[in-house]
Amino acid sequence: MASAAEGSPARGQQGNTTSKTITDTIVGEHTHTIVGYSLIKGIGDGEPIASERFSVGGHEWVLLFYPDGKRSSSSDPQLGPGDAVAMHHAAAAVPPPGMVMGAAAGGPPAPVPPHGAGAGGAGAAAGGAAAAAGDGDGAGAAPAAAGAAAAGGVPGAMIPGQHHGHAAAAALRMAPPGRRDTTNEYAALFVALIGEGPNPQGVVNTNEGKVVRAFHRFTLVDQTGQGRDLTKGRTREAGAVKISCARQDPNARNCHGYRKFVKRNILEDPARGFLANDTIIIKYTIELVVSSGGALSRSSNGPSKAELIKVPPPSIGKDLGELFYSGLNSDYVVVVEQDGEQEEIKVHRMLLESRSPFFRGMLESNMAEAQQGRYVVRDMLAPVVKAVLHFIYTDQLPEDLEGPNLEVAMAQHLLAAADMYQLTRLRRICERRLCESVDVETAATTLALAEQNHAEELKRVCLDFVSRNLAAVMQTDGYRHMTRSCPILQAELLQVIASTGAAAVAAAGHERAHGVHRGHVQHVRRLEEGADERRVRQRRGE
Length: 542
Description:
542 residues; alpha+beta; seven-stranded mixed sheet; six-stranded antiparallel sheet; 21% strand
């Protein structure tokens, strides 16, 4: 009898093995803003407005909002023609930013119930009640009898990525023959699975095919800030919703949502706060169930962890702005002298040198400002100096000076400062704002400012405007200031007027030549007609 090999377990003994399966959720959120709600009312039953596509867990999703509702002729709802068109566009390589299918019809705007109304707690009437009411159903939800589409919140979790889509409510007319039904008292809301990335997670093989399981939460935002949001979603107790990955199968359950998401009169009630400035905001949160480990796991390499990690946006501008306002570890002082008073602003020498060629040249020299650690500003207002320093630290203007908040007078001051301190980006920001505000009263003053501060694009716009409105502009004080401070601009104005005038004269001469030619042709035709008439009379006389 042969002996057992050395090191191997004796016959009848078994080695101990272990395994582990880990199930967790990947959480994602998408915010969809619909502007122009009054224009999409009357679009018709079953016609959706689609959000931009967004990705969670390696799957691509799209929200479908039905302003006129979505009825079903059976207890097992499926996507209708409008959904198919919407999802076709959403799944395209370059999807439209927002889509409305159907005929637009006007109507009074309005908003929805406070948080929890028909949603959490008692509103989470289980299974049969929700299904019987027609709410909480959806292709992709569990069957209606077991659907327990109880509203109420899904337990919160860290959101690894937020996506924002904006849908302008422009109606594309694709109405089939016949009158559209707009009598549904409810607006509907669904989410649909429309595609997969290279590494989709959470895919499970079942007797219904490949599916993903998830908890979904839909929220209509109270825009008054009082926190009375309307939220509906699947609870943990009810179990995750299955959604099919078989997008080519017309019978596949590939969406989930609520046919009776909110009554339209509640949505449009101004007291509810859901409709503000003809705009509604929908927030959608998904918790995608993902399992790793085990022989039946789809990927042998295990799921990617990339989407579990939230990468925050860059914050260096914000951080440096806080450093500026705190004055922490500052080593230099900018002094603003105004009306005999001085205001000291603590700054960091290294930042001034790195961001502004003006400060770099001054602070790296033997000038008194470099030796004394102080730079005195006498020809600028304190708010202008502070805005410039804020820009040096953060590469943007303070929030109260951004966009249309930047008044023309401040933009003019900042343009001069940007030229002095050689801040090219700030100069362009000011140029763009001043270009938007050029009119008869400001054109000449702005033109002189552009000439003095090397703002070439702004100068070109002002020259063109003044040349076209010279008579009116010449009556302003700004024009007289321009002629005194920048007399050379008068010659440039004459050149612009001459060039545009020459073009106009050439065009007029071309038109006159054509007119002479047309007149000659008409004269010849009249002579020919007269000759023909004389010949006819002669024949009649014969």
